[in-house]
Structures are given as structure tokens and as C-alpha cells.
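step=predict obj=Ectoine hydroxylase-related dioxygenase (Phytanoyl-CoA dioxygenase family) n=283
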Amino acid sequence: MTQVRTKTDLARSYLDDGVICVPGLLDPESLDLAEEAFGWSLDNPSPAAQRLFPDAGTVFYQDLFNTLSWPHYMPLVQRAGLGPLMARLWQSREVWFFFEQVFHKVGAGRRTPWHQDTSYFPVEGEHLSVVWISLDRVSKEQALEFVRGSHKGTIFNGAAFTGDDDTAPLYDEGAMPRLPDIEASRAAYDIVSWATEPGDGIIFHPSVLHGGGQTDAGEERRTVSLRFFGDDCRFVSRPSVSKQSAVGFNRNETGSRNVEEFYEGLSPGDLFRHPDFIALEAA
Ligand SMILES: O=C(O)CCC(=O)C(=O)O
């Protein structure tokens, strides 16, 4: 008999594993909206847009937290029902859009270093998700990988995303524990991944360790990664960034708001709120 996963199963898996795959999350119209939004982000880079690992000779591009892009993502978020989906997954009354991130990989590129997104942003809570949507087919070999359940463990120093050592820390040594070398001892970790078709979604807690997702020669991967938060999220302090990171750019020069403006006045332990985060229909 075919096993049908209910919404309750998904919520349980999300809570336990910190990551779930939702085949067919986007219908064809939502997928078109995702393509439009991704195209807008590529055509309108924020000052934080970066070509990562430029010496690799292939394209590994990212941009994020461009507040000018947010209206372009709302039709997708609404059409795909991501607000109500988050509310059901987390049992949260309210859901806010946190920010968008896009990745564009072209050619025989390297893996995304293992990392946790919460190392880069001063927020914690169970009501947090990343919805990762590839506009292109992704094979199991090229899938983004996750360490199941790691969202319940240590929050490590950020990966610096430079050089050959993927555990090289973003913040000063000692500020947070250094990332373990997961690639060097993969068997010691419970690593999960899924092949995806355009329109499938992978939903993960931003504290889950994730990495991988390399592309091969002649291939392109266009990815939209949307972030959401809900009721229980609180502001936490993170070390100040001593090296250039995507968080520290001045976006104002393009008319985008800066990340820091959304944290003004918050002290560690405060509910993570700002009136300019977009509140979504949650039911
Ligand atoms: O798509 C990738 O290679 C990286 C994705 C990622 O790290 C994220 O969405 O947080």
C-alpha cells in the first residue's frame, strides 16, 4: 500500500529532523512567479551580491536581503501558500517573511561549504524556516545535503566562504566553536538529501548543518531560498563580523534597507520583531 505523508507527519519530521522535502510544493503558476522573482534579483543586484570563490573559474553567485526585491517575491509566497504552510509546520499564530536569498551556480563548481544560517543572523527559535526551491532539476549527487537533527545541537562559527578550508571561521576564533570537518568524516554524520524537480521544495530549519549542491560542467542551477519566522523567535547576540560578509554590506546606496536597521533597539532575549517585516496571512 502506498504511504501518504500527512501534514502532521511533515510537521513531526520537521521538528525532529530539521529538514523535509515537499515534492510539488509549487504549482506551474507559482513556479513561473519564482522564475520572475529570481530574474528580478539577478537583474537588480544589491551591494551584497557576491561571486563566491571567484578563483574557481565558475559562477557561484549569491545575493540576499535586498528589501527592494521583497514585493517581487510576495506573489510567489502568497500563491504557494507559504504563510499557512509555515504556521501549520510550526504551530505558530503569526508568520513573517524574513528575507530572500538567491544562488546561481554555473559550470563545474565546488560544494557550498557546510554551515548553519543562524550563525550569520541574530535570531533563534523553533518557528524559523528556509524554503529552498531550485528552478532547475537537481540530481541526488548534486543535491544540497543536511545533517539530520543538527538544528538541535551546537551553533558553530560561520563558514567564511573563502579559500580551501571550508571550516575557516567567519568570526574571530573563540567567538563560537569552529565548524567540524564534516566532509572528512561523513560516515559519522546522519546526512540526508533529495533529488528534486523544479517546483519541489526543501524546507529546513536554518540551524541545521547544510552544504554541498555542486554543479557539473555545462550545468546551471538557479535557486530561490526564502526565509520565514514566527511567534517564538527571539533576538540573540552574534559576534561582530571582523571579516567582510554578506551581512555587513551597505545596501542603502541602492535604496535597499540594511539588515541592521531591522534589529535596532533589540536586546538579547527580546521577541524578534520589526514593523517592516512583512506579516503573512497564516490561515
Ligand atoms: O544552494 C546552495 O548551494 C546553498 C543554499 C544555502 O546554503 C541556503 O539556502 O541557506
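step=describe
The mean pLDDT is 93.
step=end
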